[in-house]
Design goal:
The complex is a heterotrimer of chains A (303), B (263) and C (353). Chain A is mainly alpha-helical and 303 residues long. Chain A has 14 helices and no strands. Chain A has one domain: MetI-like (MetI-like fold, Orthogonal Bundle), CATH 1.10.3720.10. In chain A, helix 11 packs antiparallel against helix 14. The relative contact order of chain A is 0.12. Classes of the chains: A mainly alpha (303), B mainly alpha (263), C alpha+beta (353). Chains in contact: A-B, A-C. Chain B: It is a multi-pass membrane protein.
Chain lengths: 303, 263, 353
């Protein structure tokens, strides 16, 4: 590790000596300038602009009115539905993803299943947006294969039960298609971190498999599980394209509302739009902070 | 403990049903254009559509531009931070993870406000400069994956020793970067590049809100106006994603050892 | 009194026979080592005793009771692993308490017992540490305490010292042995390190390729190796190629030089080749009046400090011998001609099996 001061001293102490070595301290900072300029212009400033705008009225004066306006019933309900869908798809993704990962990692299934599942999860976790929406319309839409087969083979009309692919449950089931694989991808290394010897040690000490899971495996996995669930939450909370492709603008979730606001100022208040964005950042930010904290804890254990 | 029990099998089979049925259904749906007879007409319609060709080409070019800009930005930065400014690493890491916190729609919203045609830097003023903005936006989206991949790759080689060895042989740093560092993180770069491609090719939010003729908005347009073609497009998109992941797996294997690189 | 009986144990995976006919009776309180290189079946045998593997053939009896089909959590064995295997989410005290808690002991009883155990392993102040906060040696002590806290019938140790530094290895070795003697607990110790096996065990089972090569006390194993494998695996050993001259008198030749063995070589025909084992420490430089003598040339001298290891070429046989360093006289030089003396009692014929 080179100390900044030493590096600084070199060119001044021996000014006549040609600079043969790598550029030293003042020049060393130049190496990261492109990155910081980029991050500032295309990530930080745009975000900060919106955050600042959320606290301003159209004339640029400070106000908290925009945040108060977020409490309007249609905005609150948009946030609420977004949170519900994200929570449902995160919990569902976590549960089924954990089950799948555990099935493949921990038990004596044929060896080819694991790489197959991992590769498929890599694909499916990236198969989101409009193509995913189309796929689920073709599956569970009114004319979808599953809907049609259920009614022609079993006489079961899915849509008469109140199910609609354009609804809360439809969106949640669709989101699970990338949430479950994401959970599998993140949780598998954590499951691999469970040492075989822990199970064996617990057995020789008289523990049943259930006691092993309750007292050792689950507590060790818990931070990863919870952390990944929060990441899944943020993941679906910010999703636009899948929802838009499935429902158009019919479902009142916060990303769709913001999309409509950007396109046509449906809120009739630019700064309220900024506040809407700020609300999203706060929610995904909180879940990511929680993720990072829990992740650090789980890695400390598995060290 | 080697015997398989019923539970894991049930989980795997249910999982397989959930993941395969939509693919089968979508494929079946895409064949339904003609009455009472399956055909590939939807695919022919889509592939023959000049808008498809144009938008797909556009998105492919944008994806390549994104990969080039992203690599040129991320590799030197990651290299430099490891070599010279290790204290900066947490800061850089935090910034690269921000796109996971700030949703894409929020970032593009900011672009539209800061870079509109009446601003100090009117990037959205002309199609050409909007294309540049779109590429930079995609670099932002790809940043978490690309940086992590390259940084991990760099950590597996001894950057400092390699650099000092090259220096002692008289190489200057651009040469070091291109002949020593890039080849050694080739696997990481390729992995990040294919992932970037998979993210960018069908991306909707940025392209639609910046009003660019990309593949994502084209998908949306077809979805809103046609019955069977969206299913065909969905199958095509799935195949592209699969190809990207497959190529990551193939190139991800280190040629020297035959061992797959860690993601 | 026989406590643990392994009767005709075999373990076969597919077509691969990992353990072949393992028969052993262990006395109560005995310390037995399974010694061999990796893949010799020693760990598989240990895991059959623990209950993690089921023998393909054979039975395991503890205190007269057949436990072959019992699950590991019903066998009352304590096990210590090479990788420590402490539960990472529990403190030292919680780790040691685990078995007692699972067994439904009262909190007061658990507290007392855990305190005793931590005293026993000399780490009473680390009760609230987590495993990652401790050194490998400390972790392994805790693992040992955890294994014996429930007063198991048998203690199984699977290469417990292999992951540790040399110095800690030696001190922990002594601690394990002392503890084992004090508690009188029947112990099986798996290792590939002959020094560990020789220094700790009441008896050693030397294994190779799934076979038991020899069972005996460290003294027997070292001084009377039954097979060529044991001879070469345990300690350093010179193997001499000899030809039999007069079997009943033990007279033989090595490269034309006549020597003799103490025991008669009954059943070996005249003129037959024979392999003889001779420990380096049994050879002296300079011929004795009564013993055997071989003439050779020094081919190599390695000065190891307290010991000087000298290699001598006798025809096509090369012998190693160890002498103590003598500050008064420098070691012999290469190329010097020497006479080697050793007693006929130290020559053992070994079978080629």
């Amino acid at each position: 590790m080179e100390q900044p001061l030493e590096a600084l001293a070199l060119p001044t102490a021996q000014p006549s000596r040609p600079l043969r070595r790598l550029p030293t301290m003042p020049l060393a900072w130049l190496g990261v300038v492109p990155f910081f300029v980029f991050a500032l212009m295309f990530l930080l400033l745009p975000t900060l602009f919106l955050i600042a705008g959320a606290f301003q009225d159209p004339d640029g004066h400070f106000t908290l009115q925009n945040l108060r306006d977020l409490l309007a019933p249609n905005i609150i309900s948009a946030y609420w539905i977004s949170i519900e869908i994200s929570a449902a798809s995160a919990l569902g993704g976590a549960f089924f993803g954990a089950l799948l990962a555990a099935a493949v990692v921990l038990n004596g299934l044929p060896g080819w299943l694991r790489p197959t599942l991992m590769t498929f999860s890599g694909v499916a976790s990236n198969f989101a947006g409009l193509p995913l929406a189309f796929a689920f319309l073709a599956t569970l839409g009114r004319m979808g294969l599953v809907t049609v087969l259920l009614s022609s083979l079993l006489g079961f009309n899915l849509y008469r039960t109140g199910f609609n692919i354009l609804s809360f449950w439809g969106l949640t089931i669709t989101y699970l298609y990338f949430q479950i694989p994401l959970m599998v991808l993140i949780l598998t290394p954590a499951l691999d971190g469970l040492k075989k010897e822990w199970r064996e040690a617990s057995q020789t000490l008289g523990a049943t498999p259930w006691q092993y899971w309750r007292m050792i495996a689950f507590p060790v996995l818990w931070p990863s599980l919870l952390g990944t669930t929060l990441l899944l939450f943020a993941n679906s909370f910010g999703a636009v394209a899948t929802a838009y492709g499935l429902t158009g603008s019919t479902l009142n979730i916060v990303t769709i509302l913001l999309y409509a606001q950007i396109r046509g100022d449906v809120l009739h208040n630019q700064n309220l739009g900024y506040a809407l964005a700020l609300g999203m950042i706060v929610i995904t930010g909180l879940s990511n902070v929680a993720y990072i904290v829990l992740r650090t804890r789980s890695e400390r254990w598995l060290k | 403990m080697k015997r398989a029990r019923l539970g894991p099998w049930i989980a795997v089979i249910l999982g397989a049903i959930y993941f395969l049925v939509p693919l089968i259904a979508t494929f079946e749906f895409s064949l339904r254009v003609r009455r009472n007879q399956y055909s590939f007409d939807a695919y022919a319609n889509v592939l023959g559509d000049p808008h498809f060709q144009a938008s797909f080409l556009y998105s492919t070019l944008i994806a390549f531009a994104t990969i080039v800009v992203g690599v040129m930005l991320v590799v030197p930065t990651a290299y430099w931070v490891q070599l010279r400014l290790p204290k900066l690493r947490p800061v850089i890491e935090f910034i690269t993870l921000l796109p996971l916190v700030v949703p894409a729609i929020v970032i593009v919203f900011g672009y539209l406000r800061i870079y509109n045609s009446s601003s100090w830097l009117p990037l959205t003023g002309s199609p050409a400069s909007t294309n540049v903005l779109l590429v930079f936006g995609y670099v932002t989206l790809a940043l978490p994956y690309l940086y992590r991949s390259v940084d991990t790759g760099l950590r597996t080689i001894d950057v400092r020793t390699l650099t000092e060895a090259a220096e002692s042989l008289g190489a200057r740093w651009p040469r070091i970067l291109f002949t020593i560092i890039f080849p050694n993180v080739r696997v990481a770069i390729i992995g990040g590049a294919f992932l970037t491609f998979a993210i960018v090719i069908g991306e909707f939010t940025f392209a639609a809100l910046l009003d660019r003729p990309a593949f994502g908005p084209y998908l949306q347009l077809v979805g809103a106006n046609r019955a069977y073609e969206p299913a065909a497009l969905s199958i095509i998109a799935f195949a592209i994603t699969w190809a990207c992941m497959g190529l990551i797996q193939i190139f991800g294997r280190d040629r020297r050892t035959g061992v797959a690189a860690r993601p | 009194m026989t406590f643990l009986v392994l009767d005709g144990l075999q373990k076969i995976y597919g077509t691969h026979q990992v353990v072949q006919r393992f028969d052993l009776s262990v006395e109560r309180g005995e310390f037995i080592s399974f010694l061999g290189s990796s893949g010799c079946g020693k760990t598989t045998t240990l895991r059959m005793v623990a209950g993690f593997e089921t023998p393909t053939v054979g039975t395991i009896r503890v205190d007269g009771r057949d436990v072959t089909q019992l699950a590991p959590n019903q066998r009352k064995v304590g096990m210590v692993f090479q990788s420590y295997a402490l539960f990472p989410n529990m403190t030292v005290a919680q780790n040691v308490a685990f078995g007692l808690k699972v067994a439904g002991k009262s909190p007061a009883e658990i507290k007392t017992r855990v305190g005793e155990m931590l005293e026993l392993i000399k780490l009473p102040k680390l009760a609230d540490r987590y495993p990652y906060q401790m050194s490998g040696g400390q972790q392994q002590r805790v693992a040992l305490a955890r294994a014996i806290a429930t007063k198991p019938q048998i203690l199984l140790l699977d290469e417990p010292l292999s992951a540790l530094d040399a110095k800690i290895r030696v001190s922990l070795r002594d601690d394990i042995r002392t503890l084992q003697r004090e508690l009188g607990i029947t112990t099986i110790y798996v290792t590939h390190d002959q020094e560990e096996a020789l220094s700790m065990s009441d008896r050693i089972v030397v294994m190779s390729e799934g076979r038991m090569e020899q069972v005996g006390t460290p003294f027997e194993i070292y001084n009377r190796p039954a097979t060529r494998f044991v001879a070469s695996f345990v300690g350093h050993l010179n193997l001499l190629k000899a030809t039999v001259v007069a079997p009943s008198e033990g007279r033989i030749t090595v490269n034309g030089q006549a020597i003799r063995t103490a025991a008669a070589l009954n059943g070996v025909p005249v003129g037959a080749p024979l392999t003889l084992a001779l420990r380096p420490e049994a050879i002296r430089i300079g011929a004795s009046e009564t013993g055997n003598r071989l003439d050779g040339t020094i081919s190599d001298v390695a000065f190891l400090g307290a010991i000087v290891r000298i290699r001598v070429q006798v025809g096509d046989n090369r012998l190693s011998l160890d002498t103590f360093n003598n500050p008064g006289s420098p070691p012999p030089a290469r190329g010097e001609a020497v006479h080697l003396g050793f007693s006929p009692e130290d020559l053992h014929s070994v079978s080629d099996a």
